[in-house]
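Figure 2 data, in text form.
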Amino acid sequence: MKSPLLIVLAGGAAVTVAGLCWADASAWAWTRPASEASPIYGVRIPSGYRDWTLVAPAQEAAPLDELRATVGNGKALKAYRTGKTRPFPDGTVLVKLAWKHTASPDFPPASVPGAATTVQVMVKDSRRYASTGGWGFGRFIDGKPVDQAQHETCFSCHAARVKDRDYVFTRYAP
């Protein structure tokens, strides 16, 4: 027989987790002022994204020569982990962080992040972004969105290379 205290704690945890999942999926659009939204898509950098779960790291060769890490919200991780949810569900948010590739000062054969270069955000909302495969895009330098010309290249690049994976480059690293 389960303890009443255990049942109450488990119920409270379920409510907390449900609340976090809701906030994770819907709060992205309201965390930054409109002036910090990307042109075309209106995507903003989500609050708390640095605490999200790692989806995968990557290394970009020259000329960019960057280290990258993609993190995702709860909906993104659930879709990746189950491998059954494609297209990604609405409310999925992916954030890619990029830094210059630098040799470690403590252990030169190792690579470490140098200067930050960009933060890139993808938000799945199939109704709002119907003309771009259901995805809105944002590219930011020093927390500010880059110009419209750069945002005009986002969807065409994804469509040309990864349309068959719901326009997402990043594969989950188990």
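Caption note: Residues 50 and 170 are 17 Å apart (CA to CA).
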